[in-house]
Specification:
Length: 189
C-alpha cells in the first residue's frame, strides 16, 4: 500500500481465508440436530471470470480435476449479473468431501490469480418440509451468513436469524445484516 493510498483511507483487501470453509461440517451437524436441516450434497462457488485464456484454462483444469475423481461433478453457469458459478455435487452424506472440493475450487482460482474475483461459496441444506437454506461464505469479509429463500424472491428472515443463533459457535457469522445479500437463483439452492 502506498503512502498516498493510506492518506486517502484506501486499504488493500484481505486475502480470502479459504480454510474457514472447513468449519462447515461442524455447522451442518449443529443444524441437523438443532433445526432438522440436512445437507443436499450441493455447493457452489461464485466469482467474476476474467476474459481470456487464463480464466478459461483455470476453470477447465478445476472441472477436469474434480470430474476425474467421481464423474461429472462440476457444472458451470453464468448468472444475470455476470458471475460465473461452479456447482459441485456429492452424495448428501459426504459433507466433508464436498467442502474439500469447494476448497479445491477456491484454492485453484486464488492460486491462479483470481482471488480478488472470488465472491462467495455456499453449501445448500433442506428440511423435510422443503425449506431451503444456504450457508454463504463471503471471501472479502471472511464470514458466513445464512440465506433462506422463499418463493417469489422473498426471504425467511426469522429463520435466517434462528440459523445465525444456532451456528454462531461453529462459524464466524457476518455481524452486519446489511451484508447478508440474497443469492437468488444460485446453483444448488
Amino acid at each position: 500500500m502506498s503512502l498516498f493510498g493510506r492518506i486517502l483511507g484506501r486499504s488493500t483487501p484481505p486475502a480470502p481465508d479459504l480454510d474457514a470453509l472447513f468449519a462447515l461440517p461442524g455447522a451442518v451437524l449443529t443444524l441437523q440436530s438443532a433445526l432438522g436441516m440436512a445437507p443436499t450434497g450441493l455447493g457452489s462457488v461464485a466469482f467474476r471470470a476474467a476474459e481470456g485464456g487464463a480464466a478459461a484454462t483455470t476453470v477447465a483444469d478445476v472441472t477436469a480435476l474434480l470430474d476425474a475423481d467421481q464423474g461429472p461433478a462440476v457444472e458451470r453457469s453464468v448468472d444475470e449479473f455476470g458471475f460465473t458459478w461452479l456447482l459441485v455435487r456429492h452424495d448428501a452424506e459426504e459433507v466433508s468431501a464436498l467442502v474439500t472440493d469447494l476448497h479445491a475450487v477456491n484454492a485453484s482460482l486464488a492460486d491462479n490469480g483470481f482471488g480478488p474475483a472470488l465472491l462467495c461459496s455456499l453449501l445448500a441444506l433442506t428440511d423435510p418440509d422443503g425449506r431451503r437454506l444456504a450457508l454463504v461464505y463471503l471471501y472479502k469479509r471472511g464470514t458466513f451468513y445464512p440465506f433462506a429463500p422463499l418463493d417469489g424472491k422473498r426471504r425467511d428472515n426469522a429463520f435466517e436469524l434462528q440459523v445465525r443463533g444456532a451456528v454462531g459457535a461453529d462459524l464466524p457469522v457476518e455481524p452486519d445484516l446489511a451484508r447478508w445479500f440474497p443469492v437468488w437463483g444460485a446453483p444448488g439452492l
